[in-house]
Amino acid sequence: MKRLGLALFHFLAIAGLLAHPVAAQEVALVDSIRTNWIAAVGSSVFVVPFPFGRLRRSDDGGVMWRESSSDSTRFARTVTSCPDGEVILGTSNGIFSSVDSGNTWILVTPRIAGGFDYEFSCLPNGDIVLGPVGDELDVYRRGSGDFETVATADPNASDAVWTVSRGSADRVWAGYRGCQESSCGGLFVSSDGGISFEEVPDWSNNWAIEAIASIDSFSVFVNGSDIVRVRDPLTLSWMSVPKGVYNANKILPVGGDTLIAVGDSGVQRSRDGGRNWITMFDRFDAPAHDVVRLDDGSVLVASTYGVLRSRAVFGTRTSSDRDRKISELHLYPNPFSEFLVVESSCMEPITVFDIVGRDRTSVVPVLHQGRSKKIADVSRLASGMYLFATCCEHACSVAKAVKIDN
């Protein structure tokens, strides 16, 4: 009888029917409804019940909750918010949009590429990139009203699960895992706002991608099945770091080098760009699926335990963070063809990368170097976009320029 009682207790706990306290954790339970996805615009927060259902909303930053009254939100499956304040809702009946904090919803398209289990990301031009379960990564082009395939998984990957992360205004990262094996995955990057994607060739052995966090335009944290790699903002090269996040579903930058990761192991935090992690919430029977940062600096997490709020407030970048970020670097003419003038107060050697991170410095000789200017021969570069970087002590200068053919 005692064994039966323990088994029943364990079943109820997993089902979310027992209200366990969350004391001594770094997060607090604010809504006991099991949730899957979360989005926020100002003080309005939206969550999708697990595994799907009528959209729930809070108009006071997650204190009080209610079901959305709109018929468009009855069969919600996923939700995300865009930088311009638009909310995108995926339902069984199509994709809906709201530009007034969820008060009214407009049908964007009744058709959904790749099924219903997908991740959204909003592009600068208003298009929507979808990370479905399937072989292809699709973008819904609002201008044409149709879907376009922008990246394709390896043919050996079965039912690839895509994840997307928007970095700067024009950089979008996308990765996928195709099976439980570490070799079933790949990484793509777009440097034109999601119009086109290129596969990153130096992602070792096509490691399966679980989650991506764009800290800024150049520093990227990628969590793979058996490996974690960080793109160093100073050299734009990949570094392997100890794996601290297991089965991550989402990783969110919340200011400076601080990241919040949610997944099967709960909620974790890193303050050094993903190199080291501590646990904020460790309910292994209640996986966390999504995370969002509110305007007041608090973090809300969607999990099968309920909606969680961080006790800590995450602010903007500190002065030390800003000091080690990008400083001024001027390139002209831009676009360039045969020669390029590099102007900077830092006259250390220039490093040149193409848009997927390959070092092209060896084919860009410096013909003349003055006190604040260099003249480089760029004739051997193929047409396309390039990053030029130079570092002095702890400050780095990075700028983009485009090579065109004569």
Q: What do these coordinates show?
A:
The chain folds into two domains: 292 residues, Methylamine Dehydrogenase, Chain H (7 Propeller); 79 residues, Immunoglobulins (Immunoglobulin-like), CATH 2.60.40. The protein contains two helices and 36 strands. Strands 1-28-27-26 form a four-stranded antiparallel β-sheet, with no helix packed on it. Strands 2-3-4-5 form a four-stranded antiparallel β-sheet, with no helix packed on it. The longest helix has 13 residues.
Quick take:
With 406 residues, this protein is mainly β.
Detail the topology: elements first, then pairings:
Blueprint: H1 2-14, E1 27-31, E2 35-41, E3 44-49, E4 56-58, E5 66-67, E6 76-81, E7 87-91, E8 94-98, E9 106-109, E10 118-122, E11 128-132, E12 136-141, E13 146-152, E14 161-166, E15 172-177, E16 185-190, E17 198-199, E18 209-214, E19 220-224, E20 228-231, E21 238-241, E22 248-253, E23 259-263, E24 266-270, E25 278-281, E26 288-293, E27 299-303, E28 306-310, H2 319-323, E29 326-327, E30 330-332, E31 339-343, E32 351-354, E33 366-369, E34 373-377, E35 384-392, E36 395-403
Parallel strand pairs: 29-36
Antiparallel strand pairs: 1-28, 2-3, 3-4, 4-5, 6-7, 7-8, 8-9, 10-11, 11-12, 12-13, 14-15, 15-16, 16-17, 18-19, 19-20, 20-21, 22-23, 23-24, 24-25, 26-27, 27-28, 30-31, 31-34, 32-35, 33-34, 35-36
Strand order of the largest sheet: 1-28-27-26
Q: Give the overall form.
A: globular
Uncertain regions: pLDDT < 50 for 5+ in a row? 1-24, 316-327
Rg over alpha carbons: 23 Å
Provide a count of the helices. Answer: 2
CATH topology of the largest domain: Methylamine Dehydrogenase, Chain H
Category from helices, strands and their pairing: mainly beta
Task: Supply the CATH architecture of the largest domain.
Answer: 7 Propeller
Separation of the first and last Cα atoms: 84 Å
Helix content: under 10%
Provide the CATH superfamily of the largest domain. Answer: YVTN repeat-like/Quinoprotein amine dehydrogenase
- The number of distinct structural domains comes to 2
Strand elements, count: 36
Overall pLDDT score: 77
CATH class of the largest domain: Mainly Beta
Strand count, sense and barrel status of the largest sheet are:
4 strands, antiparallel
Roughly what fraction of the amino acids lie in strands?
A: 35-45%
